[in-house]
Every structure is written in structure tokens, then in C-alpha cells.
Amino acid sequence: MNATSHSSQSDEAILKRIPWEILALAAILALGALLAFDAGTGLFVFLGGALSSLGFISLRQSVTRFLQAGKKHAVRSALFFFGLRLVLIIALFSIIIFFFSGRIYAFIAGFSTVIPVFLVEAAAALSRMKQWKH
After folding, report:
1. Which of 24, 50, 60, 131 gets the most CB atoms within 10 Å of its CB?
2. 68-95: pLDDT as tens digits
3. What is the DSSP-derived secondary structure letter of residue 103?
């Protein structure tokens, strides 16, 4: 096995693992919110993390499809799809703000779990790269 195929297999494993890590972190935070606040807050933290995890899966699949399509079609489709995603996220946040204004911070906390997961994965990848070079 050459280094390129090992690297792509490793990258694929990381990309499959990230949504589960997002969901696990959101569940841990939701449990903390449940204990510190109430069940509704915990639920919104978990729902935010679940949406973030689903969004990552959807984004990964769409990027793969766009890369396989022709360049002209891919750019047009990507612009439409990502614009639609942005509109849907704004609509969801607006609905939560309108109907559950007290829970928006809990939802944002769950939705933002993708950030620490990416930071940990990036640090781990950097560590692996430095070990490989030495």
C-alpha cells in the first residue's frame, strides 16, 4: 500500500467519524445542560448538535457529487445548493428565535459542537503529520 492510498483511507475514516463525534459531544453537553438547567435546554443542545452532524454528512456527500460532475454544472449546482442551505439554516434559526427565544443559545451551543470536533481532528492530523516526517 502506498502513502497516498493510506492517506486517503485515513482521511475517509476521519470524515466518517466526525459526524459521530459531533453527536457524542452534543449528547455530553446536552446531559450537562439537563443537569444544570432543564430538559428543554438539554433537548435544544442535542438537537443543535444533531442538525450540525446531519449538515456535515449532507455537505460531505454534496461536495463528493459536485467534484464528480463537470466543472460548469458543478459550480452552478454548488452555488444553488449552498445558497439553499444558507436560507434553510437562517429560516431554522429564525423559527427557533421566534418560537423558542429562550432556547436559542442552547441550540447554538449544540450546533457549534462541530468547531471543537474539527479543532481536535485538525490537531490529531497535524500530530500524525509531524510523526510521519520524523
Report:
1. 50
2. 777 777 778 888 888 998 999 999 999 9
3. G
